[in-house]
Amino acid sequence: MKDFRPELRSTAAGSLPHENPRAACELMLDTLDIPTWPQLPKRSFLENMYVQFSEGFPGIVVSDEQVRLDRERDLDSELEQLYVAYLMDDLEFAATSAQYAAGLHQFLEMDLRQVPLAKGQITGPISWGLMVPDDKRKPILYDDVLAEAIGKHLRLKAGWMEKQLRGQTDHTIIFVDEPYMSSFGSAFLSLSREQAIDLLEEVFAGIEGLKGVHCCGNTDWSLLLATSMDILSLDAYDYAETLSLYPEEVAEFLERGGTIAWGIVPSSSQIEEETVDSLLDRFYAALNLLTDKGMHRDDLLASSLIMPSCGCGSVELEIAERVIETTRDLSRALQERHG
């Protein structure tokens, strides 16, 4: 989709607090310009973002609301199966079942004929590898063999998801969610820049359509902007000023056709303190941080999506619905103002 035009349309991060998959899908489909299938962590622990995409990974055990890697298993045999599937591009090997993603499977059963562009999401390799430990509570990201397998596993998962969505709609966006990129450069995350980029690029390679990264904290944005992603999604409600520290990288990203998804609508109870007008002010203030560095306002507007700052899976149902509806209203107000 080289001709993708964001044009201030609305979309969202994936998670919602609903337990009814159909109600969650209807909210996304009825409200957003670019609907996304919903992750439902309150429905089941299996839909926790770190568990949801663990299905099928070598040695993984899910029990007692914990996910871990069991090194007593025959990891060599299971890794061999993963690598064979990877080399054969066997996407069905990486299918995500309805047990782990009821929202996705319900979304695929909805009438999507009037949806020209749909969004999906997958947990990124860095965050996933940090949050899945082995028997000794060591994150498996720090095992070189397993880290390589993580990238290949999630590449297949992303490819399978995209294939399912493309069976129902013409075009797709797949976000790679990396909340723990906010720890990059700290003692908590011992990973080089090259390793991080390589892991992300491995997953991107499985995505044929638009691909984005969502990070809901401060990070080294230059690292993400150096990848082949098409869309940078950030929590612009709390961290807009951090992006302005990288004006050259942002300008280069936009010049090659990149999109910024501004998470300017708070995905928490803070939404009760905001209105469309107050969020318009906050959005323009975020833009000004970049125009002050020499970027053109019209270029930024044309290259922007509007979304919540993060997922809504942990908030109350009424708060989540207000967040999604306010995202729609803010997007419409901006579209009306800027044509």
Given the helix and strand composition, which structural class is it? alpha/beta
Number of helices: 12
Classify the beta-strand content into a percent band.
5-15%
* CATH-assigned fold name: TIM Barrel
Total strands: 8
Can you offer a commentary on this structure?
With 339 residues, this protein is an alpha/beta fold. It has one domain (21-338): TIM Barrel (Alpha-Beta Barrel). It is built from twelve helices and eight strands. It has helices at 21-31, 75-87, 102-109, 125-131, 144-166, 193-204, 221-225, 236-243, 247-255, 276-291, 297-302, 317-338, and strands at 60-63, 66-69, 117-123, 171-177, 210-215, 231-234, 259-265, 304-308. It has a six-stranded parallel β-sheet. Strand 4 (171-177), helix 6 (193-204) and strand 5 form a beta-alpha-beta unit. Helix 5 (144-166) packs parallel to helix 6. The longest helix is centred in the middle third of the chain and has 23 residues, at 144-166. The relative contact order is 0.15. The mean pLDDT is 95.
Question: What tags apply to this protein structure?
Answer:
12 helices; 13% strand; 339 residues; alpha/beta; 6-stranded parallel sheet; two-stranded antiparallel sheet; TIM Barrel
Question: What is the secondary structure topology, with strand pairs?
Answer:
Elements: H1 21-31, E1 60-63, E2 66-69, H2 75-87, H3 102-109, E3 117-123, H4 125-131, H5 144-166, E4 171-177, H6 193-204, E5 210-215, H7 221-225, E6 231-234, H8 236-243, H9 247-255, E7 259-265, H10 276-291, H11 297-302, E8 304-308, H12 317-338
Parallel strand pairs: 3-4, 4-5, 5-6, 6-7, 7-8
Antiparallel strand pairs: 1-2
Helix pairs in contact: 1-3, 2-5, 5-6, 8-10, 10-12
